[in-house]
Structure formats: structure tokens, C-alpha cells
Amino acid sequence: MSKKNLKKNRIEGIYRASEKGFGFVEIEGQDEDLFIPAKMVNGAINGDTVRVVIEKPKLEDRRAEGKIIKIIKHEKVTVVGIFQKSKNFGFVVPDDKKFGTDIFISKNKTKNAKNKDKVIVKILRYPEKGKNAEGEIIEILGNIDQAGIDMLSVIKEYELPNEFPEFVVKEAKAIPQQIDENDIKNRKDLRKDTIFTIDGEDAKDLDDAVSVRKKEDGNYILDVHIADVSYYVKEDQKLDKEAIKRGTSVYMFDRVIPMLPFELSNGICSLNAGTDRFALSCSMEINSSGQVVSSDVYKSIINVTERMSYTDVNKILNNLDEKISSRYSKYIDNFKLMEELAHILKNRRIMQGYLNLDIPESKITLDENGKAIDVRKYEITFANEIIEQFMLTANETIAEKFYWLEAPFIYRVHEEPDYDKIQETNKFLFNIGEKIKVTKDKIKPKAFSEVLDKLKDTEYEKVISTLILRTLKLARYENENKGHFGIASKYYCHFTSPIRRYPDLFIHRVISEYINNNYVLSEERIEELENKAKKCADSSSEREKIATKAEREAEDIKKAEYMEDKIGNEYDGIVSSITNFGMFVELDNTVEGLIRFENMGNEYFIYNEDRKTLTGEKTCKTFKIGDKVKIKVIDANKQLKKIAFELI
Known about the structure:
alpha+beta, 648 residues, 14 helices, 29% helix, globular, 5 domains, disordered N terminus, five-stranded mixed β-barrel, CATH 2.40.50.140
């Protein structure tokens, strides 16, 4: 190969390691990652920026393979792990198993850490040519069995900003906790309207409120009122810069790492019942088919009538609790009207091909020491659906309005999935006589929703929802509108949670500026906002990925902790995934564990990658995704975040 071609063949990207030694390189602008065999990793660590050369081109049934030829930048400078002490030195076993090696700690660099302490290590020498990494302990978090150390470890591992800098807190505390009476004249006064917040019982940052009424002609008026956070968090303020850095709030059971300080998130910006609050309101007229026939967005002042919970609204709608129904008797018609409109909006969305994926969330209960004492499915009622449909509709309405205004904006983008990935999913669906009907030129959400509808209320519903979710691309933020495949929408943004998501706060600021300036901005200002929108979209997408990883890891730890005293127990479960080393089984409470081949009986199993099946060589017994099985718990380890089952 000529030098010119060799140079052209070199690409830079981010290395993502697997625990088995091989990995993949994510390359910007390319949908498919480059496979890196274990012998071609050349010392790269998960997250490193690397230069690769393609060794084998992509084939129809195989992705391209590459070799790492240079580590441009190591992502990790510090690592969280468990200290293991010996007489003259120690080792730290990283929490991140993808790091690849233990870290050697010489005696004078242990900071007097004790055996089984969770520590933070600064890397002094990265692993190379089979040698371990070396480091020094810079912080001791506490013993692994100490209350709260598991969650603190996750916070430190992902470098989440656990505390606000003093100058940010000072700026937040300087903001008055009462509204400015002088600004009421610039707003629509809705304080006499009947307005509700509907959230989970334990929600504290209430940033959305709703009201619905019906016109004489049969059309509905849906008002979605969102806390006017941008009124308090000004552009380029210290508060604003800190919010950009955080990008999103992170939720970890007994703690929240908020995007904004308490004084704002739980104080003046929270739409607490019975208090005057500034809001940005989206008012929509909706016909009986669920179409938004007209809309307006304006600054308002509201006073929430009642703070409702999903549980209580569900009880009222289904007449499940006379005491609750009696307490809110004068608002029952309001909630019935909300239910009526939500059904109309949902039905229209389903007609468009909206993907209603049945993937239950976990509700994990902790005791006073932070130990997991219960894991179950989070109960979703139609009360949750009401708010979901109202927020989706407001987000679409705002996105479409500002798209046609050609305003600088941040959209929530979810592009159509790759045709090849759909074909992979179809190989499995073939087992159950189904198919996602698409062509390379025509990939529509409806094709996915039709399969989901056919499998609703069958044993395959949850499993197929998960499989389809893996087929789809990740949603992200962009400053260009590219539509949202998952909700079958041409225009979509995040407008409804400015307390906990930065893109919402950014577009609130844009909307307010357009309203204040009668929808006319200078070319210079538009260009400035466009540049900021691009930067904020990129950084918010990255922060969201990190927050999601941290939240998932925290959940895995707590599920494993919950199962630690369940060893020997037997449960019914469903095969959720098939691999070349065993199968994963999910229990009814959402806990998932692995059954390795050696725990599937005295038999050799043949793995069929296309159909995702395991077939016993002797008995010809075949296991496939969706099968019901009975298991015994044989191991659970919260440090390793792993749960092991045995097939009964």
C-alpha cells in the first residue's frame, strides 16, 4: 500500500473496551463501530482517543476490523476501585472492569489505605506490554461495607459534580424567593385558573403544570405551564455556566445531583401549590382527532391549585378510594377531561406509528442506611400517561413553531435505524412468525409499531420491546431538526423540564428573547445563539450519556445488593437475551441474572447467532428469547454488579 493510501486509511476515534479484551472504536460520522481484536488493542484503555488503521474491510456479515497504532489521549487520569493490601505494596482493583488491569500501588503511595477501602487512584503509568498500571492513592472514600460508599463510588467514577462551587451557591442565594411584582404587568395573569401539577409522590422539583378545558365547539384547550427558569438563570451567569457543565440532573435513589442549586430547583423555580410563580406557557387548541389546530406561547404568572400525585389521580379516575375522591370532589371533572384528551392524543400518536415500548422501570426501595430492601416494577398508570401525552404535545408544538421561525434552537433528534440492524432483528422475529416490513428506502415507525401491537399481551411483548429498543439509534440533542423516529414526529424538542435539563433551559431563553423582541432578532444575535445552540447540544448529549451510565450502574449495584441474601431462592423468569456464553433471565421484579453454560445442566449448547437460540447437543432442547424458565440464584455480588442463576 502506498504512503498516501496508508495515511488515508488511518482514522481517529474513541476506544470502547469489552471485559473480554477486544473492543470497538467509535468514529464520528460513522454509524458502525470498528472492531478491534484483543491482539490489536495495543494498550488502549476504555475511553481513550486512539488512531487506528483498517486491517480488514467491512463485509456483508461482518464489520470492518482495525488495529490501534497510537493512543492520542488517555481518557482516565483517575480510577475508583477497591484497595487490596499486602506486606510491602498493594493493588487497586478498578470498579470499571473494562479498565483491563489491576493498578500496582507502592508502599509509600497507599495514603495508609486499609484492606477493602474504596479509593481514588491517580494513574502514574498506564498498562503496556503486559505490565500492570501503576498509581498512587489520592483519596480514601471508606470501607466497601460502609453505608453510602457504593453510590459515592459511582459519583466519583463518573466524575459527577457532587457539590456546587461556593460562588454558584452565593449567586443562587442572592435570588429572591418571592416573585418580582414589577414584572407581573409583562405577563398573562393566570392565577385564577384551575391548574395542577401531577408528579410522583417523592418529586421535589416541580417544573410542569397543566390545565384543560373544553370549548363549546368540542375542541379542547390544553395549557402546559413550565417554570420560567430562564428568568432567574441569566445567560453567561456563574449559575448558567455551572448548569451547562452539568447538562442534566442525575437521579440515584436516595440522592439527586441537581443541575441547579436547591434554592432554584426546590425553591423559586418549583411550581409549588398555592404560591405565585413565573412560567412560560404553551396554550394549544386541539380538535377531536388530536390535531393541534392553533397554539400560542407566552410568559405567564400562575398559582397552582393542587399538587397531585399519579397515585391519587389514578384512584380518582378509577374510583378506587372514596376518601381521595371525596377530598378532590370539585376537581373530578377536570381529571376526567384530562383523561379524555390524553386518550385522543395517544390514539392519534399510535395511528402515526408512535413506538409504545413496554419496558418496565425498576422501583428500588432503600432502608435508612441506603441498603436495597425491595425491588419491583415501577407501576405506570394512565395518570402517568396523561402527563406524558400533554408534555409530548407541548414539545412538538414548540419545536414546530420555532422551526418555521428559523430560530436558533436545540432539537431532540432521533433518526431512523439502520436497515442492516433491522434485518438482524428480523432474523429473530422470523422465529415467531413476525417481520418488521421495511425497505432500504422506506423505514417508517409504523412498521415497528405494527409488530409491537401484534405481540401486545403475549409473552414476547417485553422482550420484543427491548430488542426493538436495541435496534434503534440513541436520541440526542442537535441544533438542526431531523425529526424523532420513536415518537413518529417531524418536529420535537425538550421544552418541559428546564430545572433538570439544560437544552430546555436554553430554548426557554431563546423563546423569551423572541417574545421580548416581538419575534425580531438581529442577524448578529441569531448567529451568536446558533453557535451556542451547537455547543450546548453537543455538551448536553455527552452529559446525558454519562448521567445514564451512572444511573444504570447505580441500579445494577442495588439490584445485586438486594439479591445477595436471596442465594438459594428459586424464581420464575423469562429469557431476555441469548449469548455465546449463556443466557440472561429477567425476573418479574426486573432483576436480571446470567445463566452460564456450566449452570444449564450437563450438556453442550450450540449458539445460533442469527436466531438468537441455544440448542442442547444431546437433548436438542432449544432456548430462545421469551421462553419461560425456572431458576435458582447461585451468586450475587454488588461489588462486581453481577447476579448469577442456575437453570432448574
